[in-house]
Design goal:
single chain; mainly alpha; Ferritin; 5 helices
Length: 152
């Protein structure tokens, strides 16, 4: 690998580390939300988003560590979860009032992450990297839509 190849990989890893930091932050927000619910049932949709954020972190870490060949990344990306957004009901405000503002904050942060991933997708030149950011963009859009539905 020449100097340009080395610098390209270094730049990609830097971008992926930024993406990982965002995924870790979002995961932490969902995890803390679960603790804040104190005895209330955690809606299945929130548990699902939390698990997906954890999987996103693992994918990005493995890309940074160059553990995944292109074919394996494609396999992971094709196994995404399908949400039935139209079936998601708003959380009852009387029971979940203490965490609704936190959900709004998480939604705003998810929207920022969505924009970041979308810009990386649009700027990526390597096909497997472009595909990964497209997947992450799609997933974050689903999370924003789910949060919209939960918030009513």
């Amino acid at each position: 690998m020449g100097l340009f190849g080395f610098l390209g990989r270094l730049g990609l890893k830097s971008i992926l580390r930024s993406a990982l930091t965002l995924e870790e932050e979002i995961y932490g927000l969902f995890e803390s939300l679960e603790r804040e619910l104190k005895g209330l049932e955690v809606p299945a949709d929130i548990l699902s988003i939390t698990e997906e954020e954890r999987r996103h972190q693992r994918l990005i870490r493995r890309m940074i560590d160059e553990e995944l060949p292109e074919e394996k990344i494609e396999e992971i990306l094709s196994g995404k979860t399908i949400h039935r957004i139209e079936e998601v009901k708003p959380l009852p405000g009387d029971r979940y009032a203490p965490v609704l503002e936190r959900l709004r904050q998480i939604k705003r942060r998810e929207e920022e992450v969505l924009l970041f991933f979308r810009s990386l997708y649009q700027k990526s030149k390597l096909p497997f990297v472009k595909r990964a950011f497209r997947f992450l963009t799609e997933q974050e859009q689903v999370h924003v839509n789910l949060l919209d539905r939960l918030l009513g």
